[in-house]
Amino acid sequence: MIPAQAIGGVFDAIQQVKAGAPAYCTNFFPVQRKLQEWVEHGELQVETRGEAAFFLRQDRDFWHFYFCARDPAALRREIIALADLKTRRLAADLVGNEEALREVLGALASAGFRPYARLQRMVRAGAPIATQPLIGDAEVVFADKADAAAVLGLLEASFDRFADQLPLAREIEAAIAARQILAVEPAGKLAALLFFETQGFTSAVRYWAVAEEYRARRLGAVLMRRYLESHSAVRRFTLWVVADNQNAVEKYRHYGYEPDGLVDHVLVNDLISA
Amino acid sequence: MKPIAEILKEIRPEFDFTASNDFMADGMLDSFDMVTLVSTLDKTFGISIPGTDIVPENFQNIGAIEALLRKCGVQL
């Protein structure tokens, strides 16, 4: 693997594999802005091998693993020669419909990746919120710059870094500046947050969390209600949730979210323990 | 040949793509939809859209997508 020096080189590596590919497969869907950020911070590495290209992105104490290949057979052939599989802690996300992912899952399994988590996407059509207002609602505010460390702390305590694509400190600061984090802060301490991203008619909940000591006070409900009410122009709400977290899935159903068939298989190599 | 609007509708049926001039700004396509769209366009028109062309401005609206397809040699 070598550090990616420019996004042009990354696109070239992809195109080299993609041109004329009969059954192109990938788990790498970079948005140009993100790609630029990763390259600038020296977080992205690349290796091209025959009919496939591999990318690693550093995140805390492990690397996100991405690939693109001419077809699943080429992926299976090329991946086993990657030295990094034996030396780095790797986590891969495979997003798609179950049926379409089968072959690629097999290719990664043949290289030693094992299932770690399975997320499902849930979608809600834009519609007025049906639940009743809460009596004595806690005050909801936008998180501010001084909350950045507390936001990061709550996210890291509430979610799994391998499965949940946790933001880095700089991404949290950017989200705060863009007013994308709603918070409840009784006595000035962050108790609960709802981190979202809205683009036009679509809005995604990225994280929704209540600190352990503030649970069972309906703070999460207050945040979700405020979020949905303040997005009345949005036509499509989305989120990802761990599929076997029935408690979370039921909460989202309560607010009108339903699975749309898209899943995310998170796989890890054997340097990451369960 | 399948119209672009129809392909887009299959990916995101809830939106009217003919009524928007900027699908990204309007939140009608996300990055995963973009990949699905590129893959569908590749298969439908027998082309391979280069990675360097997979940028938001080439998928901003139906006119931009048609211009991209022409650039890739598709006769519309």
- Strand proportion of chain A, as a percent range, falls in 25-35%
The total tally of domains of chain A equals: 2
Question: H/E order of the elements of chain B?
Answer: HHH
Helix content of chain B: 40-55%
Radius of gyration of chain A (Å) = 20 Å
**Main pleated-sheet profile of chain A:** 13 strands, mixed
Explain this structure to me?
The complex is a heterodimer of chains A (274) and B (76). Chain A is of the alpha+beta class and 274 residues long. Chain A is built from 9 helices and 13 strands. In chain A, strands 1, 2, 3, 4, 5, 6, 7, 8, 9, 10, 11, 12 and 13 form a 13-stranded mixed sheet that branches. In chain A, strand 4 and strand 5 (62-69) form a beta hairpin. Chain B is built from 3 helices and no strands. Chain B has helices at residues 4-11, 31-45, 62-71. The radius of gyration of chain B is 11 Å and the shape is globular. The relative contact order of chain B is 0.18. Classes of the chains: A alpha+beta (274), B mainly alpha (76). The interface between A and B is medium-sized, with 29 and 22 residues.
Descriptive terms for the model:
heterodimer; A: 274 residues; alpha+beta; Aminopeptidase; 2 domains; 13-stranded mixed β-sheet; 31% helix; elongated; B: 76 residues; mainly alpha; 3 helices
Explain the layout of strands and helices.
The complex is a heterodimer of chains A (274) and B (76).
Chain A: E1 2-3, H1 7-18, E2 25-26, H2 32-40, E3 44-49, E4 52-59, E5 62-69, H3 72-79, H4 84-87, E6 90-96, H5 98-110, E7 114-125, E8 141-142, H6 148-158, H7 169-177, E9 181-184, E10 192-199, E11 202-210, H8 219-229, E12 236-242, H9 246-254, E13 258-268
Parallel strand pairs in A: 5-6, 11-12
Antiparallel strand pairs in A: 1-3, 2-5, 3-4, 4-5, 6-13, 7-12, 7-13, 8-9, 9-10, 10-11
Chain B: H1 4-11, H2 31-45, H3 62-71
